[in-house]
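Worked example 2:
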Amino acid sequence: MSDDRPEVACGLFFPQIGVDFPGLLERARACEESGFHSIWLADHMWARGLPDVDHLEIWTALSALAACTSRLRLGSLVLCNAYRNPALVAKMAATLDQISGGRLELGMGAGWMQEEYRGYGYTFPPLRTRIEQLDEGVEVVRRLFTEARATFQGKYYALDDAANNPKPVQRPYPPITIGGSGERVLLRVVAKHADRWNCPMNAGAEIAHKLAALRAHCAAVGRDPATITVGEQVLVVLGKDEADFKQRWAMAKQHLGTFADLDAVAVRGTPERVVAGLQAKIESGVRLFTLMFGDLAPVETIRLFGERVLPALA
């Protein structure tokens, strides 16, 4: 499947924490103008530990961005399968692909934030069940994208001569990204269904081992692993010079220090050091970076990355 992306590309992962729509749109337009491949939003009702901070709903926000941009691809990193019936997801996704002129990146996942499930009244089954539901959910979405009438009977979901028109602009359907790092079950779902695997931030140090597991699953299901693009969610702390970097590093430690082990996972420093860090990941097989900036992605950081890092990765 082709989505006309460059061999190596960078998207902004912006989990819409504490931002209003004008602020989100400002960042999306800066990404578009700076040569980013995509912008990816998070499918949460609130950020963990910050329930009283504003958090825009993903599908509504992506639809609005689609109408206000022209080239930037629009992604979900990743949809929680349990929050919407996958047949509805297929309908929503096809519509968003139509609205955007074929720019949707459909990311799907099994879900993990238990307090969010509880707060909104969703059942939170064991992890294996959630992954089984994701497996069926992606199958439902793919059938509704490609079949004139879709019928399916699974353990968790069913379709009965279901129509889904109009179909997506992208054929056979928008690229499907599956995020997660569980080696025994989740990566098998990736091998069966995904056009792209997104390695979560905290699993980046183990990506070589994860890729070996993914290749084994591909062999088991008869899939060429080369047909799956490798993506990685990467935390970047970027400064225009050393003094600027130190200031932004302190900010990242303050705001994101409880979210991830920044010393272990962050690609950080001046533009030259960030280029070197990302090139090392490219050597390991990564072809799409979904970047989370440690300073919460002000426009100046997006532009700095576009001017001094992106050209060196092309």
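The chain is about 45% helix and 20% strand. The first strand starts at residue 9 and ends at 13.
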